[in-house]
Amino acid sequence: MHKSASGSTLGPGGLDLTQAFFKPITNAAPPSPTKRQYKISVIGAGNVGMAIAQTILTQDLTDELVLVDTNADKLRGEMLDLQHAAAFLPRTKIQASVDSSVTAGSDLCIVTAGARQIPGESRLNLLQRNLNLFRAIIPPLVRYSPDTTLLIVSNPVDILTYVAWKLSGLPSNRVIGSGTNLDSSRFRFLIADHLDVNAQDVQAYIVGEHGDSSVALWSSISIGGVPVLSFLENQQIAYEKETLENIHKSVVDSAYEVIRLKGYTSWAIGYSVANLARSILRDQRKIHPVSVLAKGFYGIDGEVFLSLPAQLGRGGILGVTNVHLNEEETLRLTDSAKTILEVQTQLGI
Ligand SMILES: NC(=O)C1=CN([C@@H]2O[C@H](COP(=O)(O)OP(=O)(O)OC[C@H]3O[C@@H](n4cnc5c(N)ncnc54)[C@H](O)[C@@H]3O)[C@@H](O)[C@H]2O)C=CC1
Ligand SMILES: CC(=O)C(=O)O
């Protein structure tokens, strides 16, 4: 069996099987103007890439999903395994190749390729290994999809988002790091668990580095519209700063703990990135803490990518939200920027 030029399936002797199965409707109205078709490419079909791919499929976020990896057998195995779920999923064309030309015309390229931490290792430790991969991965992606938005997930995500921005030549609004969207979900889960409320009712951000120097924005947390800290202070309800510090420490330790227990993190980052993909492709204009070019915001002076609450839509980053930071939060954010910049300046990019 092969396809005709019009896309219908041809059987032996050129018999058009599509025509054989379906009698055309007479007097049919012409098709309505075609709906916008979306194409997402995921580079790196490891634990993280596949968790993202499967969440994207189950949430019906794209018409075409492309996987790229250097491990040809694993890649084909992953593609077939997903294709075999076709009867249970929204209709999506799934392709895979070791050749990045398969990504041509992607609306969104999600990069998860590269080394991951071994137990106890920091994200920043991965930089040199993943930097070399990025030099090979990013330029062809942009060549094949000059209008794409790049969504970087590989670690250390903030510095690699900067690297991707430099290597791609794309405007900074179209190069985004998944950043602390994941850390903020961990934060909201822990607060919700502590107070026995629904995490979706907790509005709370972790900003700065996706890593050890991240910053919890306690002063702006609200639950169901109630600003938490000012409410406690107005009601003269005592709370211990140590409790807050411990919650933030648990957020920072989260990935280390999961990696120690199961070897890698995957499900939460899968949902986090699918959530970002939806906001970007569906022009949701939702606010997410993601890694953006932070120069000029909150007194940050330097070409550094780190997470700030940003509005996402079809154009990528539409703007950075003006969340109020108290003095301590501002200082911690500046320190987080310095931590990233110190490592970044050694790259010579
Ligand atoms: N930003 C975040 O919140 C998170 C980031 N990560 C990061 O994601 C990355 C991937 O983690 P895992 O999927 O667990 O690792 P993994 O080892 O399971 O998968 C990495 C994949 O990249 C592929 N690869 C290597 N070089 C490639 C190239 N040049 N082109 C295409 N594919 C290539 C490998 O063959 C492998 O399949 C790591 O850097 C990890 O630290 C992981 C979790 C959360
Ligand atoms: C590995 C990683 O960056 C995370 O799960 O947060």
UniProtKB/TrEMBL annotation:
<feature type="active site" description="Proton acceptor">
    <location>
        <position position="210"/>
    </location>
</feature>
<dbReference type="InterPro" id="IPR011304">
    <property type="entry name" value="L-lactate_DH"/>
</dbReference>
<dbReference type="InterPro" id="IPR022383">
    <property type="entry name" value="Lactate/malate_DH_C"/>
</dbReference>
<feature type="domain" description="Lactate/malate dehydrogenase N-terminal">
    <location>
        <begin position="39"/>
        <end position="177"/>
    </location>
</feature>
<dbReference type="InterPro" id="IPR018177">
    <property type="entry name" value="L-lactate_DH_AS"/>
</dbReference>
<dbReference type="GO" id="GO:0004459">
    <property type="term" value="F:L-lactate dehydrogenase (NAD+) activity"/>
</dbReference>
<dbReference type="Pfam" id="PF00056">
    <property type="entry name" value="Ldh_1_N"/>
</dbReference>
<comment type="similarity">
    <text>Belongs to the LDH/MDH superfamily. LDH family.</text>
</comment>
<protein>
    <recommendedName>
        <fullName>L-lactate dehydrogenase</fullName>
        <ecNumber>1.1.1.27</ecNumber>
    </recommendedName>
</protein>
<feature type="binding site">
    <location>
        <position position="69"/>
    </location>
    <ligand>
        <name>NAD(+)</name>
    </ligand>
</feature>
<keyword id="KW-0520">NAD</keyword>
<dbReference type="GO" id="GO:0006089">
    <property type="term" value="P:lactate metabolic process"/>
</dbReference>
<keyword id="KW-0560">Oxidoreductase</keyword>
<feature type="binding site">
    <location>
        <position position="130"/>
    </location>
    <ligand>
        <name>NAD(+)</name>
    </ligand>
</feature>
<dbReference type="InterPro" id="IPR001236">
    <property type="entry name" value="Lactate/malate_DH_N"/>
</dbReference>
<feature type="domain" description="Lactate/malate dehydrogenase C-terminal">
    <location>
        <begin position="180"/>
        <end position="342"/>
    </location>
</feature>
<feature type="binding site">
    <location>
        <begin position="44"/>
        <end position="49"/>
    </location>
    <ligand>
        <name>NAD(+)</name>
    </ligand>
</feature>
<dbReference type="InterPro" id="IPR015955">
    <property type="entry name" value="Lactate_DH/Glyco_Ohase_4_C"/>
</dbReference>
<feature type="binding site">
    <location>
        <begin position="153"/>
        <end position="155"/>
    </location>
    <ligand>
        <name>NAD(+)</name>
    </ligand>
</feature>
<dbReference type="Pfam" id="PF02866">
    <property type="entry name" value="Ldh_1_C"/>
</dbReference>
<dbReference type="GO" id="GO:0005737">
    <property type="term" value="C:cytoplasm"/>
</dbReference>
<dbReference type="InterPro" id="IPR001557">
    <property type="entry name" value="L-lactate/malate_DH"/>
</dbReference>
<comment type="pathway">
    <text>Fermentation; pyruvate fermentation to lactate; (S)-lactate from pyruvate: step 1/1.</text>
</comment>
<dbReference type="InterPro" id="IPR036291">
    <property type="entry name" value="NAD(P)-bd_dom_sf"/>
</dbReference>
